[in-house]
Amino acid sequence: MQNGNGVILGSGGPGGEAFSPGQAAGGRGEEEDVFSPEQNGGLGINKDERMFVYKRLKRAKDCLAENGIECHEFVPRIALIGSGGGKRATVAFLAALEAFGESNLLDSILYLSGVSGSTWCMASLYHDGRDWCSDQTAVTKEIIDRLGGKKLSWAKCGERLKEYYKQADHYNLTHFWSAIAVTTWIKDLDTTLLSKQTDVNGRVPYPIYTVIDKNCKQQLEGSALKGPWFELTAHEARYSLFGPPAQQKEFGSMFKNGLIVKQMPEMDMLYIQGMCGSALADAQLLWRLLKEGIKEWLPGQSRPSWRLALETLVDINSLASEGKDYSRHVQRMNELLAGKLDKSRKCLILDPKFTKAELEDYTLVFCECFSDWYESDRDSGESDVVRVDAWIWAKILASTLKCVKTWKWGTTYNFLHGRSKEDNTSVQEVVPSLLTTETRDYIDAGLLLNSPYFSVLREDRKVDLVISLDFSDGDPMMTVEEAKKMAMEMKIPFPDFPVKITSEDRSKPKDFYAFQGDRKIPTVIHMPLFNKVNCDKDIEVWREKYKTIRATFDRYNPEMIEDLKQKSKENVQKNKDRLLDEIKEIIRLRQNQLRFTGLHM
Question: Whole-model pTM?
Fold first, then answer.
């Protein structure tokens, strides 16, 4: 039997009869299957996650007992979430999890969810479905050594980009970003699959990767507020707050009315990390990477006209993105395109007085005509193999250039395309266009909210405690404030703030904030990375030292990584007792609820 948000154990108390997998799913006693997706139009946690919850909560019960907390009737569901923050978040989240392990608290965590840089940490930990909790010290060392090591070669990253380009029906900037930029931060080409990150024995927390639907982000009002939040697990890809899921293995395939009409390869973890961590991208950085790509990937000594045209146009756009004068390149570009006609049979002429929009149009026309113009004269005078490879790279670079100008990210086939309105009323109420559009664009969730609250605040997950580790740049209280505001607008339970957040909380935050819930509202604990406890008076020094800088990829040397690790670990180690006190209070409230309602057996 169950009640509240957690799981009620058997009536025998400690050592008594164990709870059932069905009870691990429900959360409302005799209505234990109310959140079964089979009975609720696709809403609810799936049977694989329900079985995981059942196994994991048994571990949580034992973990809490080892910390002096006996769960006679109720085991709380605890979610640990990490904010975005680039490589700072990757290292800090990894260190915090190590501290949870060393403090013997890790097995109490049911769900682990991240945004942006925190997902890079998760992907490394869960690599190919390994049991990282059993050998956490060794796994952590392996990841830290890699993060502080040498970056991957352009050639190796380029080969992965080439594979993406060949496989993709909708090539976009996420392919380029994943292969070229994310690899520079994480020093890895992770081609493993999320569907392999399964754990039937509950040995590790259940991982949830989060992004948002870019199309939904642009219409945030009324019921559409629930629209953007999207999550990926080993079992499913789905909108967190409404609608039916797709199997993770099938996410990215082409659907019509719930059926696959074109099977696509499952997304690898490198691409998922690029999708989760795209907020760091800006046009200047992408132009810089394109310039490097032309030098690295177009082989040989010769410089055919199509290569010169690509190089010159990238230089022009790079200068324009920085507000610099590009007039010195205009004559050369016009000479290179002399006699070339666009699809309307007009000459393409570059004017140094072009507005930003006119330069954008010019660039898009160039990209659209590139293959037609140069297919016949692409012979560079070198071997056939070199010519073919160079031409593939030319097309990839031209396609990427076009994506930069249209800002095309995360374009993926829409698994809800063509489903009926009658059978998908929740979708129709929130985002009707999901039933009619063939593709959707998925991007970094940090562009809307830099912490994955709504993946763990799903009603069907019945989470009792959310521990939020905040690694954000800037205001350390913004994520929790924004989460509360959005939750209230969507009528999702979220605890009140007992006192007003002050200017000092923003400039010199504490290391631990507890916003207590009640019998129906989860408790939220918020822990800023740099605070007045672990940094004393030097908070701004630490913030500046680890500031997110888009244009600088690899400025974290081993010493910086180790210092950051220690700061993050301190926050957990010094607050272990406070964390346990909050867990005790949650259990007290829930058990009182059982006795009050007469459901205690």
Answer: 0.90
